Amino acid sequence: MPNLTNADWLERDARYLAPTYHRCFEIVTERAKGAYLYDVEGNQYLDFTMGIAVNNVGHCHPSVVRAAQAQVERLIHCSAVTRHTMNIKLAEKIGQIAPPGLDCVFLNNSGGEAVDAAIKMARFVTGRPNVIAFTGAFHGRTLLATALTTAKSHYRQGYEPLPSGILHAPYPYCLRCPVGQKSGKCKLECFDILESMFAHQVKPDTVGAILIEPMMGEGGYIVPATGYPVENGYMQRLRKLCDKHGIMLIFDEVQSGFGRTGKWFASEHFGVVPDIMIVAKGIASGFPMAGIVSRKELMDRWTMGRHGSTYGGNPVACAAALASIDVIEQEGLLENTRKMGEYFMSRLNEFKSKYSFIKEVRGLGLMIGMEVADESGAPDGELIEKLVEECFKRKLLLLDCGIKNHIIRFVPPLNVTKAEIDKAVSIIEESLPAASSDESKDSKESSNVAQPIA
Ligand SMILES: Cc1ncc(COP(=O)(O)O)c(C=O)c1O
Question: Which of 48, 182, 288, 404 could link 109 by a cystine bridge, Cβ 3.0 to 4.6 Å?
C-alpha cells in the first residue's frame, strides 16, 4: 500500500470512529519519542501536551519499553483468578513514595474509574451518602465522575439525571476570586462559603467525602489559594474541617501526580495528607492504569468483594508503572521538574511583561498555566485558540484549558531540556503577535484585574 497521508487516515477515522471522541489536532500520529511526536507524513512536532499529562518520562522511554516487553513475555493477564507478583510490587512501591500513611492500594484502569472507586469507598466506609466537590473541577467521564465534574456544563448536559448526593463549593481560584476578594488581601472568604454549606445545604454528619484537585487541571491549571499563606491556608483548613466532622478528604491527583509538580504528589506542596488519593495518567507512561491509595486501616473497612476490576493492576501496566517510577528516581526528574519549571515560568513571565492580555503565569513544577483576558478582563478563549493554532503551524503542540478555553496548559515531559523549553518559547514568541493581531492588545493600558467568571 502506498504511504497514506494524514488526510487519508482522517477520512477513515471519520468513517469508523465515533465522532464524540474529540481530538485536538487534525494530524495522525505514527510514533513518538521523548519530547517529540511524528505524524504519518513524517512531520516532527515538539509535544508539550504529553498525551494530556500522561507521558511524564517522555514518549516511549527505553526503560519503560523494555520493562513492558519483558513482562509481555512472562504474563499479560490473569485478572482476579489468581494473585500475581506485579501488582504487589507496584503497590509496595507506591506506598513508599505516597504521602505518609498512604500505603494500601486499589488498582484499576482510568482516572474516572478511580474517582468512582474513591467515592464508593468513602460512602461505604463512612456510611454517609453526600460528597462535596468543587466548581470548575474535572473528574472524568463515568456517570459518577460526570456528576462530580463542573469544569464545563457541556460535560454534563444530555446525561441528566446524574447521580445524586453531590454538592459543589467554590474553588479557591485567586485570579478570578469566586467571592470577589483581592488576591493577597483576603481572609479566605471562599472557605467560609464551604463551611456555610453545612448550615444551609447539608449536615456535616451526612457528608462522606470532600473531593478536590490539589492543583486544578482541566478547569484551568490553578494553584489553589495562592493569595494566602500555605500555613493554615485553604488546604490545611480543609484537612481540619474533615477531621472535625469525620469526613474523608480525597485528593484527585490524576493530573498532578507522579512528579508533575516537582514533588511526587501535589499535596506535598501544602503539607496536607488526604485520606484517599486518586492516581492515574502519569503513573504508567501511557499504559491504562489508575488507582486509589489510602491507609491500611481504612482500606480494610472496604470489605472483600465490594469492588473490583477485570483488568485492574494488569501485569504489563504494572511493569510500565514500576519502570516509570524508577526512571523518575534514577534520572532525578523531580529535581529537573522543579528546575525546568522555574526556568520555563521565568521565560513565560517575559511575555507577561510585554503583553497586557497575559494576566497570569502560574504553576507548580512543570504543570504551568498561562491565562489571558480581553480588555474588559473577560477570559479570551479566542486568543488562546489562535495562539494554539499559530504554534501548531510552527510544529509545537499545546493544549488549552479553563471554562472558556482561555488558558494554555504547558505539560512537557519531566525530563525536558532547557534547549527544548527555549525552542518552545521561541515558537510562542513568534506566534504571539500573529495570535493577537489586534494591536491594541499590546497596550499596557488595559485592566490587569481579571473579572470573576459568572
Ligand atoms: C483531575 C482528573 N481526574 C480525573 C480524570 C479522568 O481520567 P481518565 O480520562 O483517565 O478517566 C482526569 C482526566 O483528565 C483528570 O484530569
Answer: 288
